Structures are given as structure tokens and as C-alpha cells.
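Hi Y.,

Following your request, here is the sequence exactly as I used it, all 351 residues.
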Amino acid sequence: MDAYINNRAARQALVIVNAFLLFLHTCMLIFFACTKISLMAYVNIFSVLFYVVGFFLLKYEKTWAYTLATFLEIMIHMFLAVLCVGWDFGFQLYFIGCLAVVFYVDYFSVRLRHHHVKSIGFGAISALVYLASLMVSRYQEPLYPMSSGMTFAGLVVNSVMVFAAIIFFFSILTMLATYYEARLSEQATHDNLTGMVNRYYLVDHLEAISASEDMHRYWIAILDIDDFKGINDKYGHLCGDFALRSMAETIKEVCGDRIVCRWGGEEFVIVGAEDGTDGGHDGAEELLEGIRQKVARTDFRYNDKVTVNMTVTIGLARYHEGQTLDEWLNLADRRLYRGKQSGKNRVVGTD
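Below is the corresponding structure, written out as C-alpha cells. Let me know if you'd prefer a different format.
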């Protein structure tokens, strides 16, 4: 579903580019028709028709063909515009604005799993055509001389349009880069199946609190679903995934604001602090026993057809001064193992 949403957003982003360029060339068509610059009026009739066809190219995912044709249209159009009305009118600025469009299209083309559109190469070509326009305008008088007032007005309008386009497209890229960076960070620190934090997040959290003066209040518990392999073997892995999600919801419901982590497989880790340091007031044994009892008496219904009954075994370890994080976790793991060996479905807090 996420991939579908991302692809849809990428296609919509490219449609925005096409709509912007269609609007821009429609305005230019009106301007050139009103000022009787016939060559550019005819060119813009072609441009408007091209960007109408552009919607169909994007619909059928012809991103590379669309990008190449759009780039050529902009280069030819703006070169002719400079030739017709001169350098001072400001149409050469669109060669610079084109860079924002090209990199924008390149980014979303990749998100649609198409090829790179070679934005660096297009940028270099844009720079060369910009310089060619400069050289031509130096030695060639405009084909359609304009008054100084009209020329200045054109420069202002073109400058505003180019800056608006650059700001718009790069602001979208910045927002999306920030969004996807946050998504990647979320995926790196959270388990996709249960939504819980993962072991990487937990280790960072434990390292952060290890210097706390209240460290002696902290405890850690490793919870394991008893005979989880039997659920997968009997009902299938989809039911196993359901069991893990249900277990995560049950643990979080009881634990409240405490750190709860999916450690891996069917193991979960809970970190708490007694005396209310972690926002809770129950003792560790009382809290963990509450989880054990709630799981044991709950009938988890899978697809309203299958009842999955589960029990859990929990190993608890309080922090002792001088312990390393590995030693602390290993102590909880040993107690979990002892609980498994002594009958399962229990909380083990001492050796």
C-alpha cells in the first residue's frame, strides 16, 4: 500500500510540472498574439498542444520521452524567444529555471522506478544554450523590437515566473526529502509488523539512560511467547503474524508509557523503572504478572474463525551497579530460559 501511495504521489508531482508548463505557455501564447509577434505565437500554439499531449505521456508512464521532449521544447522555445525580443526581455532566465524542473522530474522518475533522466547532462546543455543565446543576442538585433517600457515589464514578469517556479519545485523537493528522511528513520527504529520500537532503538535508549543517577530503579524484562512455532505450524504464518500483533497490543495496553520493544522473532523486551520514574507506579513483578495473566485468559480470534490461545514466559532483571548492558540483558535472558525449563507461563525474577 505504501508503494502504491508513493507511486501515485510521484505521478501527481509530474502532472503538476506539466500543468505549470501548460499554464505558462498559454500565457505566452496570449502575450505573443496580442503583441503580434507571429513567430512566437505559432511556436506557443505548438507548445500548448504539446503539453496537452504531455498528460497522456505521463498517464502511460512515458517519463523519459516526456522529459526529453519537454526539455527540447523549452530549449528551442526560449532560444527563439531571445532571438525575437532580445536578451533584455528576460526569456533566457527560463534556461536557469529549467534546471529546477529537470532535477524535479529526475527525482520523481526514480521514485516511479524509471531510469534517471540524466539531469546533470540536461543541466549542462541548458547552460550551453544559455551561452549561445547570449552570443546571438550580442551580435543580432531582436527580430521584433519592443519599447523600453515593455521590455522592462517583460523582464520583471519573466523574473517573477522563474523565481516562483524555482521556489515552488525546490520547496516540494525539500518537503519530500524531509518526509522520506523521517520515514526512513521510523523504519530504522521501529518494527514494521507490530509498530513497536526495535532492538536498535532499545539499545540506544538503554545507553542513554545508563548514566542516570536513578539507574538502580530500572528493570528490564524479556517476554517470550510459549510454543510460538506451534501456532505457525498449525494455523500458518499469517496467523503467526496476527498473534505477534495481538501480543504487542496486549503488552502495550498493560505497560502504558513504558518502553516496549520487539526484540526479534516472538521475543519482546520491556524496560521500566519503579517508584514512578517511568510514569508508572506498579512494581515490576506486579506489572509483568498482569501481562502474563491477561494473555493467558484472552481468546485471540483470527479472522473470526480461529481462536488462538497463548501464554508467555517472562524473565525479569533489575539493574545492579557496575553491570554492562550486555550483562543486564543476559541476566534477564537466563531467567527467561529458567522459566521455560521449569514449565513456562510464568514470571521469573530471581535465580
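Confidence is low (pLDDT under 50) at residues 1-5, 277-281.

Thanks again,
Q.
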